[in-house]
Structures are given as C-alpha cells and as structure tokens.
Design goal:
Elements: H1 5-17, E1 37-41, E2 44-48, E3 52-55, E4 65-68, E5 73-77, E6 82-87, E7 90-91, E8 99-108, H2 116-126, E9 145-151, E10 154-161, E11 172-174, E12 178-179, H3 182-191, E13 197-200
Parallel strand pairs: 4-13, 7-11, 10-12
Antiparallel strand pairs: 1-2, 3-6, 4-5, 5-6, 8-9, 8-13, 9-10
Length: about 200
C-alpha cells in the first residue's frame, strides 16, 4: 500500500506523541513531532519528555504564567491547584530579561521583525545580515505561535514563541525571548488569553 507524504508524517507523529496530538499535524512543520531534547540546568542534561500536569508551584491566579529562567521552565496556572509545566529555552548571558508583563497580542505563524540593535549586533559580531522582516513559516525563528509581552502600553520586545531550532529547548541561547517547542507553544496559545499576566524570574 502506498502512502502519501502527509500519511507518512501522520504515522510518525502519532508514534512519537500519541494519536490525539496527530490531529494538529496539518498546522505543524515536519520536525514538530520530535519531542525529546536536551533539557536541564548546569552541567547535567536530561532528556526532556514534553509538558506535564503538576501541582501548581507558583501561587499565581489561574490563567497566568510564571517562567523560571534558571530552571528553564514555564508554568501555565490552571484551576484547582494545578498547572501545566513546559520546558523552555531562555536568553543567553547578557540577554536574560526578567520582570512582569502581560500578553497584549497573540499571533499564528508570526512574521519576524528583528530589532535594529539585533541586526547591527549580528552583522558586527558574526558577519551575518538579518532581514528587516521574515514572513511566518517553518523557517521563521518565531515558530508556530507568538505571545507578545507588554508592560502597560509599551512593547517589551520580548516574546514567548515557538522555534525552528528545537534542540535549544532547555538551553540559554536566545536573545532574551522564551522559546518553546512548536507543538507546545500551540497548546499554550490555545489556553492563554490576551491580558494574562506573565512573570519572568
């Protein structure tokens, strides 16, 4: 029996993370089914096996988000004392933003507009010329979804977003934004509301 490309990907996706998640395959690039990556802190790295439901460790109201950059974890607070714990990638040394904000906007397959400072830095340090704008899609560094963090009406320029480099989950390699696996940022995107409070510690 011959299989289409979509059929092959669907079977692969189902075998990796279960049949229930396969329904979202059409919204994800091929790499999104690979859910096991290096994850941890310090010199000891474990295998990240995806999000999990836990007793709420944050003490925050339901619907809010707490991110611990040292532990490389993001918690979305549920009702009844529960939370969802996701693994994340965080900012490298010198780019690790901390503070309180709220989600002012949500976007699916967002376009990327590198800040002018980033464009200049990448060109000076690495000789790499970034585009002024990159349309959304599997090659876009913001991945499948983006949540935009504001303080009042001011854009912090930091995002919670997916990634086209899933091996960076659990590592401090970004320019300050919080990275998630594409399938997991889609899950968070579908749960969190505009206006939700976010704290990064």
């Amino acid at each position: 029996m011959s299989l289409t490309r979509r059929g092959v990907l669907s079977r692969l996706f189902t075998s990796v993370i279960g049949g229930a998640a396969a329904a979202t395959l059409g919204a994800l690039p091929a790499f999104a089914g690979r859910t096991r990556y290096n994850f941890g802190s310090g010199d000891t790295w474990n295998r990240y096996r995806g999000k999990k439901f836990v007793s709420d460790p944050t003490g925050r109201p339901p619907g809010s988000i707490l991110i611990n950059t040292r532990r490389r974890k993001l918690w979305f607070v549920l009702e009844d004392g529960k939370a969802i714990e996701y693994g994340v990638g965080v900012g490298r040394a010198g780019f690790n933003w901390k503070g309180r904000a709220h989600i002012a906007r949500k976007a699916e397959w967002p376009a990327w507009h590198p800040p002018k400072e980033m464009i200049a830095r990448e060109l000076k340090q690495y000789g790499r010329r970034l585009p002024n704008r990159m349309e959304g899609g599997p090659k876009n560094p913001l991945g499948a979804r983006a949540l935009y963090l504001f303080q009042g009406k001011k854009d912090t320029l930091y995002r919670i977003h997916g990634t086209n480099a899933p091996h960076t989950i659990g590592r401090a390699m970004s320019s300050g934004c919080i990275r998630m696996l594409n399938e997991e940022v889609i899950d968070l995107y579908n749960r969190v509301k505009v206006g939700a409070k976010v704290e990064v510690v």
